[in-house]
Amino acid sequence: MSKQPESLPLEAMRVDKWLWAARFFKTRSAAKEAIEGGKVHHQGERVKVSKEIRVGMQLTIQQGFDKKTVLIKGLSAQRGPAPVAQQLYDETSDSITRRELHSTQRKLHNLARPEHRPSKKDRRDLQKFKHDNDQQTQRTWSYHDD
Q1: Domain encompassing residue 73
Q2: Structural domains of the chain, count
Q3: Which residue intervals make up region (Disordered) (predicted)?
Q4: For a surface tag, which of 7, 56, 80, 136 has the fewest beta carbons within 10 Å of its beta carbon?
Q5: Torsion 126-132-134-137 (CA) sign
Q6: What CATH number corresponds to the domain at position 38?
Q7: Tens digit of pLDDT for each residue in 88-145?
Q8: The pLDDT of residue 13 is above 80
């Protein structure tokens, strides 16, 4: 197989190679695993690793908690710097607002957690509290048995 000269623009390329070039994944094998795991969709359907993509297609990519819907603007056979890679796609406005909403919900959910682990004194107080309440519960149950 002969390689295509660099001067000719690409008309189509494999989705795993594009995801790597657009810097969604660090390696092509990571992109391949994500595709095989059902994390990449085109028109609501899972794509295969060898799927040929073209400019104008829309992909939905799930990375961790984030689910991005992107419109392909360009193709590149080489992985370049991040600013160049970001020019290969546009994220839809719906996708951006949905991701921001989920992000704020996750942040608010984490506010309910304590800021630090309980100290030895805190643990002793918790154990004492539980022990005292267990004894009160047992006493109340024993009164109802009479």
Answers
A1: 13-91
A2: 1
A3: 77-146
A4: 7
A5: negative
A6: 3.10.290.10
A7: 999 999 999 999 999 999 888 877 777 788 899 999 999 999 998 887 666 555 555 5
A8: yes
